[in-house]
Amino acid sequence: MTVRRVQSGSPWEESFGFARAVAAGDRVLVAGTTAFKGDVLYGEGDPYEQAKVAFTTALEAIAEFGLAPESVIRTRVCLAHARDVDAVGRAHKEMFDAVRPVTTLLIVQGFIDSRVLVSVEVEAFRGTPSEEL
User: Fold this and answer.
1) Topology, domain 3-125
2) Phi, psi (degrees; rounded to nearest 5) at 6
3) Cβ–Cβ under 8 Å, residues 70 and 99
4) Structural domain spans, the chain
């Protein structure tokens, strides 16, 4: 099995030694992704905007493997505050309503930067989709 890794340029990828996304077999896994692009946090104070940016970055990572949102089979969403569930849920629905991946939502103690409100993970399938049952 061939394993391929891609980087997004996040400063934490280099300092922690991880890849933004890894393709192995028929899966592409995207690491925890926030609304940071380089040293800039987009949507500071706005969980909806942070979720949109984070999911967009994660989708850009799977695009490196020729995949689109329709390939997403799982999302994991970590929030710093329960109060942000509705805003982040709205962002998730806008991006994945037609896809309907399985989803896990967690409230966490916090993130490496206290301004981060949302972190997302995405898992995509590279195989041939079968018909729905």
Assistant:
1) 60s Ribosomal Protein L30; Chain: A; (3.30.1330)
2) -130, 150
3) yes
4) 3-125
Give the pLDDT confidence score for residue 129 in this predicted structure. Answer: 61
Give the C-alpha separation, 73 to 104, whole Å: 12
How far apart are the C-alpha atoms of 56 and 82, rounded to whole Å?
22
Residues 15-33: tens digit of each pLDDT: 677 878 999 999 999 999 9
pTM: 0.90
What is the percentage of the chain residues whose pLDDT exceeds 90?
Answer: 77
Question: Which tokens is 52 given?
Answer: 């949109």
Q: Are 92 and 84 in contact (CB under 8 A)?
A: no
Please tell me the predicted confidence (pLDDT) of residue 7: 78
Q: 110 near 80, Cβ under 8 Å?
A: yes
Integer Cα distance of 119 and 108 in angstroms? 10
Strand-strand pairing, 102-107 and 36-37 = unpaired
Quick check: helix, strand or coil at residue 49?
A: helix
CA neighbor of 60 nearest in space, from 8, 127, 17, 3: 8
